[in-house]
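Question thread 4412

I'm putting together a teaching handout and wanted feedback from people who do this every day. The idea is simple: show students a protein as raw sequence, then show them the structure tokens that encode its fold, then repeat with a second protein so they can compare. Below is the first pair exactly as I plan to print it.
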Amino acid sequence: MRIIGRIPHPTLQITVFENDGRFPIQFETNGLSQIYRFRKSEGLKSLTDVKKLINADLIKTVLEQFSVMQAAHSRALNTFAPPESVGDTDGLPDII
């Protein structure tokens, strides 16, 4: 698998790969990533074609999925290590 290009975006890092008759496209933000794989075809055979594929609708879908992923990530972390309540960090009583 080799990188054939990156597509600029203000909040996402978008990397396009070429591998075995496919174009894997990786979207990354805040430590999370998604990969979408598209088969090469008559209308999809170059980085220029892939750039046309990555339109506003796809970006919107990717960003919505990242929101879902971030919420799941946060829930998992809070289940594993719940945040400490404010003011009760040392287990000692407050002295006034």
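The second pair follows. I'd like the answer to focus on this one:
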Amino acid sequence: MLASGRIPLALFLTSFSPGGTERQMIELLRRLDRRHFAVHLVCFHRTGEWRARAEELAESVTEFPVGSFRGPAAMRQAAAFARWCRTRNVAIVHTCDLYANIFGLPAAALAGVPVRIANRRELNPDKSAAQIAAQRLGYGFASRIVANSEAALCRLQREGVRAGRVSVIPNGIDLSEFRPEDSGIRNQDSGVTRDTLTADSRIPKPVRRVVTVARFRPEKGLETFIDAARLALAQVPDLEFALAGDGPLSADLESRVRAANLESRVRFLGLREDVPEVLRAHDVFVLPSRSEAFPNAVLEAMATALPIVATRVGGVPELIEHGRSGLLVAPGRAADLAAAIIDLVRRPSYARALGARARADAESRYSFGSMVRRFEQLYLAEAGTSRWLAARAARSSQPLAS
């Protein structure tokens, strides 16, 4: 420790709706060493299914509601956030997504917060030029930027950010929650089994099941998944495909399935809280995305020891080595995706070997414990370079207000 007392740290999220960023940050919140850090949550919207979980873990949760960054209301909220930082002698502000980067970093600088850490967790496939430019301005107020993959680092460099300002900390995974089917650990509360996920008794047995888990958004490439299902079923009729998730393209994807007469072979499982059990009930995992920085869904499938077919985009090749721990195909090519799926279901020993190597990689490189240690080391290193931190922490000997 640099001074007596814990270092006040604020994590800034948009909301607590389920998502990859939110999952990673809540796990960071859960696991940070409270001997060193007093962790507060800040958000634009105190809403979402994970709100109660977050409120249990944080010292406080404070909302600064902003509907638009244009106009005086956003300026008032930025000033309020700056006052909040000064009142609590916040030493570190860590903004966790695009909107928090744009809003929180300048306000934290205005408040004199000595350590300001930005996160880059996406490749901006759906962001406007104005949003990208605004985030780039926000980065100018950061003392350090954390990318979750080498691909995200490369994207930052293309946007004009010097590599020396960036640290790469990959996402983590809970290896006890996401585990192989034969691990000997069972979740007695889950009703999900291979039989409960069978869509139609007319499907030839034994059925082989293929799943994807994603937000139903354009960059996820789920129309390619459905097209690959149609092609694969023409050659291997004892297959069943499932999409777990929800999002703005739900109706379009369901229409695509109906148009291809695949209702009995392609299931929509909805937004799931039991993703580990869903994965264990399937034989192959597919990620058909057109853009990814460092996909949590692939990490989860790796930890479950599922054989994986994924597109060669963004940070995916950092996770999957083609032919050793999974299969990689070009994005948007349904025929190639179908061929890789067929290869795995026709060669089960090969598929199991790929899954076992993926699990070993997850264990050795991507545990939550490893991720949290790297963040703690970064926080302490950045705090140690600040000549203001010791004095601010020393003045914060009294309990922090909620």
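Top answer:
Good format. For the second protein you could add a caption like this: The chain has two domains: 7-172+367-394, 208-365. Confidence is low (pLDDT under 50) at residues 183-191, 199-204, 397-402.
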